[in-house]
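Please fill in the sequence for the structure shown.

STRUCTURE ENCODING:
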């Protein structure tokens, strides 16, 4: 039954991939709750915080939040 096991494994990794790439329903207000933590990690070269995929996703599609994020990074770098 090796073939079945392989298929199940492939299937679950495919499901995982879809889950991770699925655009999350993150609003600009939601993003502001996470953007400080995310910017802090970026400035300090820390690993990207767990669960920040939706934040990255939102930043890639929302120029207003991207501006917010970049100015936050600039402020943090000046410290
Ligand atoms: Zn936004």
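FILLED IN BY: designer on duty
SEQUENCE:
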């Amino acid at each position: 039954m090796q073939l079945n096991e392989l298929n199940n494994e492939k299937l679950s990794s495919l499901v995982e991939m879809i889950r991770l790439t699925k655009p999350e329903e993150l609003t600009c207000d939601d993003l502001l709750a996470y953007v400080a933590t995310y910017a802090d990690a970026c400035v300090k070269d820390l690993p990207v915080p767990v669960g920040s995929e939706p934040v990255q996703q939102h930043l890639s599609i929302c120029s207003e939040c991207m501006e917010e994020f970049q100015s936050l990074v600039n402020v943090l770098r000046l410290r």
